[in-house]
Amino acid sequence: MTPEPHELEAQGKSAFANKKFDEAARSFRQAAEGYTLGRAGLMAAEMMNNASVALLQAGRPQESLEAALGTDKIFEGAGDIKRQAMALGNIAAALEGLNRYDEAVESYELSAELFGQVNEGDLRAMVMKSAAAIKLKTGRVTESAFKMMGSLDAKKTPGFFERILKFFLRYIK
What we know:
The protein has 173 residues and is mainly α. It has helices spanning 5-17, 21-37, 41-57, 61-68, 71-78, 81-97, 101-117, 121-137, 141-154, 160-169.
């Protein structure tokens, strides 16, 4: 008997938690297929995003990108801004893994904008930090500093290190 999509999803989450990323990606893809057949498009897109994360963790950024592409549009069509932003963040991470830095920064920035629309400050800060790290890595130091400052401003409750960093970054402005 073929497992139900929700069972495959649970298997995928368990495999991911146990760092069995290839197995997790396989389970998430099968769950996505099952949800698609059952006309549960949002859940299918969610499973493809989960597969994307697992594939990236398994060191397979091209497959990760392929799994995530288009899911942002599904969430956009459903008006689910938070999951749309998460999908764009997954796409950006895969692009970064492929050294396609300009495209990755663009996706991270769009993700940050959407997280801002739904008041997800910590998630916004996370993707802004990722964009800043790419800019720093590619030699755009000033842009990186401004991006990092923006990410710290987005964080609801900055930690000790983040408050110190914010203090020093003010002198770059």
